[in-house]
Amino acid sequence: MKRTAGIHHISTIVGHPQENVDFYASILGLRLVKKTINFDDPGTYHLYLGNNKGEPGTIITFFPWANAYQGRIGSGQVGVTSYAIPLGTMNFWEERLAKFNISTEKITRFGETYLAFKDIHGLNLELVETENGEINDFSFGDITPEVSIKGFGGAILLSSQPEKTGETLVDTLGFEKVAEEGEFIRYQSYGDIGNTIDIKQTASPRGQMGVGTVHHIAFRAKDNQEHFEWQQHVANHGLHVTEVKDRNYFNAIYFKEHGEILFEIATDPPEFAHDESEKTMGETLKLSNQYEVYRGRLEKKLIPIEIRDLDN
């Protein structure tokens, strides 16, 4: 039986790139660890934000299209992305979000308290206190490592066939079904962060891809050899899986599970410091060899962005 450690990254569609980095870097205090382009649409960014080292299990990625149409969150998508924060920091985050006029709501699920809110473009987010995971050694503005977001806590999936999606998590990805409560079933992997998936059992209207929605959720493979094994393993479970795609910072395979959610399995290596130093990650636009010849043209087309300290 193969088992993933949990979430590798979550990729989303958002609006204006400066609004995006203002929210996630300046307000939430995530580090921009890679600024590159969307290989399928090279005139737009692909931005990666996570913990100080850009480690798997902490990375949220963005395809930002200014003036694009708004999507609709629904079945066939990740409905909510949960972030893990250190114990005793909920009040800090509630006050910080209020400072930036972000409405929040406290909800309880499986005995845990979540601080729920939306980002600037409509994505559903939560913060949950946990002792799991390492402290994120990153400071920005008023955010210090003592309160900094550690990485993913987990996600809520909205499936058109919740039972089938649960079967895929257990039988294919190696999650364990651990609890049921109300309209949710909880599954866990063995990792320290990004290890919790809740599937909503009640039906949701079909989602529509666009700004404010999650494009796909990726799960972890420890190396390239295991990645090839995952490809065969997924196919053996009757799911159509893609060829291996080189994403420069990891290799990826994709498949749609029976509940219509796009799943990816991504390798932990080589991570984000292989084409620039860990200290300078995210400072300059990084391009693969095939696009480097077009750098001047791309830099003129891409909307300029900067990481701004909004606390001062």
Automatic annotation (TrEMBL):
InterPro entries the UniProt entry points to: Extradiol_RC_dioxygenase, Glyas_Bleomycin-R_OHBP_Dase, Glyas_Fos-R_dOase_dom, VOC_core
Residue stretches making up the VOC domain: 6-130, 151-268
Record-annotated membrane-spanning stretches: none
Highest taxon in the source lineage: Bacteria
Matching Gene3D superfamilies: 2,3-Dihydroxybiphenyl 1,2-Dioxygenase, domain 1 (3.10.180.10)
Database matches in PANTHER family: RING-CLEAVING DIOXYGENASE MHQE-RELATED (PTHR36110)
Protein name, UniProt field: ABC transporter substrate-binding protein
Lineage: Bacteria, Bacillati, Bacillota, Bacilli, Bacillales
